[in-house]
Amino acid sequence: MIANAPIIPVTPYYSKATEGKYPYDVNKAKALLKEANFDFNYPVNFIIPTGNVIRERHGEIIQQNLTDLGMKVNVSKMDFTSAMSKYRAGDYDLALVGWGGPLDPDVRSQFLTGREYNFSGLSIPAMDAILEKGAATADTAERRKIYEEFQTIFVDELPIIPLYWQNRLAAVNKRVVGASHMAGTGNLVRNVFEWYVTDGK
Fold this sequence. Notes:
Strand order of the largest sheet: 2-1-3
Order of helices and strands: HEHEHEHHHEE
Helix content: 25-40%
Strand content: 5-15%
CATH topology of the largest domain: Dipeptide-binding Protein, domain 3
Distance between the termini: 37 Å
CATH class of the largest domain: Alpha Beta
Number of domains: 2
Structural class: alpha/beta
Largest sheet: 3 strands, parallel
Shape: globular
């Protein structure tokens, strides 16, 4: 599933207004790079963590896409721990990292100024205020409005480029009633208190 923002689409907090903002357009990408006076002789340092075959393959696709734009890309493959050290030090130009997309929309750890996973160095006081307000609000309808505002700012600033939500296979015994699949098997037990088994055992 294509990712447009850092809030997973299966929650009530996802904003459909994030969709279609950046269609795939090679010619426009080239034009924007030229407009920004990008130095096409600059060797872009692209870090790809190893150990996740799917992510490594996507890294290769991204490398090829950037090369097709005329960019020079130097790929550094390394274990995840070493990659995280580079991310925290800001020692990279581009990098891949995965995020599970929890059902709760609180993404302060990634986008609040100075937080532990804010690898882009993003610091927007207005966004900080929105994220703090969202985390402190219990009412679902009110939170939805707050996180829609956050996502509007996000797609304008685009501190990271979300790629996709990965489909995963979850198996549930046919005796179990009430379990339903979510995007991401980590969210499968969100309603475990509603589960029951048909034979009562």
